[in-house]
């Protein structure tokens, strides 16, 4: 059969601990999932920011192409306007069936013009297929800007096609100073988009250097979270980073807090469950002890009652004529009645202690004298049981402030136990000693002794040592020592025990000396 304590433990784990552990596991799983979702939302957000910057650079160049087509002042003038307004444009190069014509930004020396024209013409020829595609686009009404490979430091070369007239199409090559374009055209856009939320920078991929950034590099350090190639400037990347706490940081921080909270909650729950389990176990133990107590007490009361009954009946019937015998019978009745009364008193006092109604009346008392009185009263009873009892009094013992009745009760309880738990060696010694602070009364027996593991438990109410023949057979209720302990506590003193199984025990009552 499963023990009730174990049953409660299992029930508690099922009711309290298991659901919370499941919940914790579920929450941790959820947190990871949430983190992944937030992470992907965050990535797409960064990506769309970069996309819009990319789109913008495309729009700028398309805008220029458009202006050349649809401007109000004619091609040459529009080119001139574009070049004066846009710091980054170095030159336009117009190619159609009739001419190759360079529109450089500033007046540059004739030979440079020639060499540049030559170079652009060559690039044009090399990229013929790409340019043919751009021309096809324009014929179907769609203008597209293409990037051409140009071996020129810091410059980018673009191509687009335009309708020369309703019949023919011409090509425009556009030479742009990359750094100036990024500073002049992308810069303001990046500032506008980034505001206080992001760090955005343009990075030269080959040199791995930053060409532009919306903030001056500072100690916070840059940890670029996403990079994208700029469509029209393939050698450059756009990099982006969230300012301050990134969402990742926030999610990580939140996850950490949640996990800590869950762990704390579980620990509290476990402690709570453990506490409930322990107190229920204690309660069960107490109930068991109480039921033992009732059966022990009933058993203990029955014996003296039966004896009193038997002897008094015999006397009543007048069958005993021998005076000596009669006297012996009266003595038995008297002894048993005393035993009963001590037992009942013990139970009543215990009840008073339990309900907090026990009162003490302290009076200056001579402890030596008190012990002598007890021995006078009980000497005969002990003699009759074959016990030899001695007392070594304290010398120069000042009077102690004690409750005489309660202290007698404590000493009698200890003597009773010494008698109950002695075997063949029926010797009990009471011994008083004194140190600077305490008067100590030792009750020494040579009985069965107490195992070390039980020594701390014997002062608990209802506790009885259950192992060993004599301990098992001796009658008792398990409340005697708990009453003694209570009495000593009320006196500001204490009780302790030194004992060796098979050798005997020394119970010591410590009384504080009056200063
Ligand atoms: P009980 O009515 O059982 O004697 P007590 O509270 O007086 O109850 O003692 C508790 C237990 O301590 C006893 O059951 C016994 O096992 C043990 N005990 C007490 N006094 C002695 C002693 N002098 N020698 C050995 N065991 C003792």
Automatic annotation (TrEMBL):
The enzyme's E.C. designation: 2.7.13.3
InterPro entries named in the record: HATPase_C_sf, HATPase_dom, His_kinase_dom, HisK_dim/P_dom, HisK_dim/P_sf, Sensor_HK_Regulatory, Sig_transdc_His_kin-like_C
GO molecular function: kinase activity
Highest taxon, organism lineage: Bacteria
Histidine kinase domain boundaries: 296-515
Reaction catalysis annotation: ATP + protein L-histidine = ADP + protein N-phospho-L-histidine
Spans through the membrane: 6-26, 259-277
SUPFAM superfamilies: ATPase domain of HSP90 chaperone/DNA topoisomerase II/histidine kinase, Homodimeric domain of signal transducing histidine kinase
SMART domains: HATPase_c, HisKA
The entry's keywords: Kinase, Membrane, Phosphoprotein, Transferase, Transmembrane, Transmembrane helix, Two-component regulatory system
Enzyme's top EC category: transferase
Official protein name in the record: histidine kinase
